[in-house]
Every structure is written in structure tokens, then in C-alpha cells.
Design goal:
single chain, alpha/beta, Rossmann fold, 5-stranded parallel sheet, 7 helices, globular
């Protein structure tokens, strides 16, 4: 079994990085309710997200943009560098924010097929669908699958 087959066979590893503990716990309940076999880890800032990813190499990172210590954009950069240095696949990163995202985050989402953006508040089905979509793309999505519009459906 090669490394990719082994990764696909094991339960998925999800990392949630959000400085609002209640938000992280809600995301965790949503994910484990839908996917009870998946492992979901919670951290409170970008620095801790990098450290957690280095230890476990999560499949998906759900990352708030505005956090203390290190913001989501800087953490994404550090995770991407870590993956490039070791020639391992990047995780899917779903940025989440309740504010207008900075241009740097918009650029990341528009140019990196591993990344997407959801605007808070996020409906349960929207979060689950985006996680599934990011896992299906596996970092190789075409330009039509990237960007803000594809990842930010209107809430009804």
C-alpha cells in the first residue's frame, strides 16, 4: 500500500483553529456528528495550528483568519512551506471569517486549489459540503473550483 492509499484508508484528521472556543466546539460537534470515525483536534491560534499539523498532518484545517499570536494567513503560509520542504501534500484549508477577508487571504484562495473561504455564520450543511468538496479535490482542483464564489454559497 503506497502512502496515498494508506492516507485514504485511515479515518480523516481534521484540525480546527479558532480563538473562539465555542465556535471550535460547534464545528467539532458538527463534524463528529456527521463523521463519527474522524479525529477532530482544536487549537486557539495559528501558531498552535502549525505545531498540531506538524505532529499529525491533518487532511483538512478549518482556520479562522483573525486570531491572536498568529493569524490564519500566516499559518497557512507556514503549513504550505512545511509541506513543500518535505514534499508532502498540503492539507485542504478552509478559511472562516465573520469579516471582510483581507486581500492576502483572497489571493491565497484564488490561487491555491487546496484553500477555500466560508463566511460566518456557517450553516452545518455548508461546512460539511465544503469539507467533502475539499477532500474530493485533494488539492488538484481546477480554477473553476477555486476562489471565493465557489466556497461561499449564499445562506437561505
Amino acid at each position: 500500500m503506497n502512502a496515498q492509499e494508506e492516507k485514504n484508508a485511515r479515518p480523516k484528521q481534521i484540525l480546527i483553529a479558532d480563538d473562539e472556543q465555542s465556535v471550535g466546539k460547534v464545528y467539532q460537534r458538527i463534524i463528529t456528528g456527521h463523521f463519527p470515525d474522524w479525529q477532530v483536534d482544536l487549537v486557539a491560534n495559528g501558531f498552535d495550528a502549525i505545531e498540531a499539523f506538524r505532529r499529525k498532518r491533518h487532511d483538512v484545517v478549518i482556520m479562522d483568519i483573525h486570531m491572536p499570536v498568529m493569524d490564519g494567513a500566516q499559518a497557512e503560509y507556514e503549513i504550505r512551506e512545511f509541506c513543500e520542504e518535505r514534499e508532502i501534500p498540503e492539507p485542504a484549508i478552509i478559511f472562516c471569517t465573520g469579516y471582510l477577508p483581507p486581500d492576502g487571504v483572497r489571493e491565497i484562495v484564488e490561487t491555491n486549489p487546496c484553500c477555500s473561504l466560508l463566511l460566518k455564520p456557517i450553516a452545518m450543511d455548508t461546512l460539511i459540503k465544503e469539507i467533502e468538496r475539499r477532500l474530493e479535490l485533494g488539492g488538484s482542483g481546477d480554477k473553476a473550483q477555486r476562489g471565493l464564489s465557489a466556497a461561499t454559497p449564499k445562506e437561505e
